[in-house]
Structures are given as C-alpha cells and as structure tokens.
Amino acid sequence: MTARGWSCRWHTEGVFTLTRPTAAVIANDVAAAAGPIVDGPRFLAMPHGLRSAEMAPGFARDHSRSLLGKGEDCFAAAKLAFERWAMFDLGWVRVANLDAKIALGQPVAVEVKSLGLWSLNVSTIVAVLDSPNQFGFIYATTPMHVEQGEERFLLEFDPATGDVIYDLEAVSRPRTFLARIGLPVTRHFQHRFAGDSHRRMREAVDCTDAVSWLG
Fold this sequence. Notes:
The protein has a single domain, classed as 2-Layer Sandwich (Alpha-D-Glucose-1,6-Bisphosphate, Chain A, domain 4). By secondary structure, it is of the alpha+beta class. It has four helices and eleven strands; from the N terminus they run E-E-H-E-E-E-H-E-E-E-E-E-E-H-H. The longest helix has 23 residues. Strands 5-11-10-9-8-7-6 form a seven-stranded antiparallel beta sheet, sandwiched between helices. The protein has a two-stranded antiparallel ribbon with strand order 1-2. The chain starts with 6 loop residues before the first strand and ends in a 10-residue tail after the last helix. The protein is globular, with a radius of gyration of 17 Å.
C-alpha cells in the first residue's frame, strides 16, 4: 500500500493520514458536520467555563489565561484576531475552513500535523458570547474528531484595569485507539497547543511588550 493510500480509522470518521487533507476532504467533512451534531456530555458554559467539578471518567481539564495587553483598542484587535482564527494559526495547527464564522451551529475543521501524521478534526460551535466586555465561543467535538469533549475560547476586557485577557479551557478524552494508547503524547500536544495559542494571540494582537501568564 502506498503512503498516499494509507489511513487509520478506529472510530467513525476519526482519521490519521500520511498526507495532508485535500480541499475536497475538508469540504466534505465540514458539510457532513453541518447541524447540531454533539456527541458527548456538555461540560462548559459561557462565560465561566466548567459547569461542575465532577467529570465523566477519562476526561481531563486544561485551563490557562494570559494577558494580551490593555485598552479598548487591544480588545477590538483581539476580537478581530479571533474572527480570523489566529489562535489556531500555529504552523502545525490551523483552521482549514477559514471562512467559518463564529456563530451557533458553525462547523470548525482543525487540521493538525503531529509525529508525521495529519488529522482533520471537526467540531461544532455550541455557544457564543458577544458583549461589550467579553467575546468568545465554545465548540463541541463531532464524531469526526480524534478527541471527545469541548473547548472554550474567551476574550475578556476589564474596564477598571484595562486588561485584555485570553482565557482557554478544554475538557476532553481520547476517542481513537491511536490517541488512547498514546495518551502521554496526546496530552503533550494538548499542552503545546495551549501554549502556542496564547503566544500566537499575543503576536496577532501586539498590544504590549509586558505579557504575563495568569494561570
């Protein structure tokens, strides 16, 4: 079997391949995910995140916050960066359907390359928040994802201090056989994504040289 024809399917549409997903594959997966496809429990809510300290077996939670800068202009720049999916523009990760809007029911296809393998992971936006001081969304995985769970992306503006905060929270567990047997590696890439996403947002917004992690 050639490298182009080799793929691993352990759960429904969860896929790892040796070649990058084509535009046709991306379009087909996004179309297949259209509609209210949520295949697991709901853990997160806007804007505060985790609904309960108790989670189903096998799920792990990751939560991180960083200061992007100060002021209303910085908050507006951060919102624009979100709408352009800058928090996923990491080199090894990207949103493959860049025309996707931050709107309820919108499928989001995230392309990942790790350990020489490609995967296309489709989630659906299940909550959106757009207020004068907060902007963000939650997406939940579909069966076309190597993980099962939810992730919350939130920007906060504090009028009292001027702080603009990027808050990232995820609750997930491996779905595919490959992800389960390689759980330590999976967790490594989840942590790498969080760190890279905060860094990329700071670069995209470029509001201040004084950046700090908040936890």
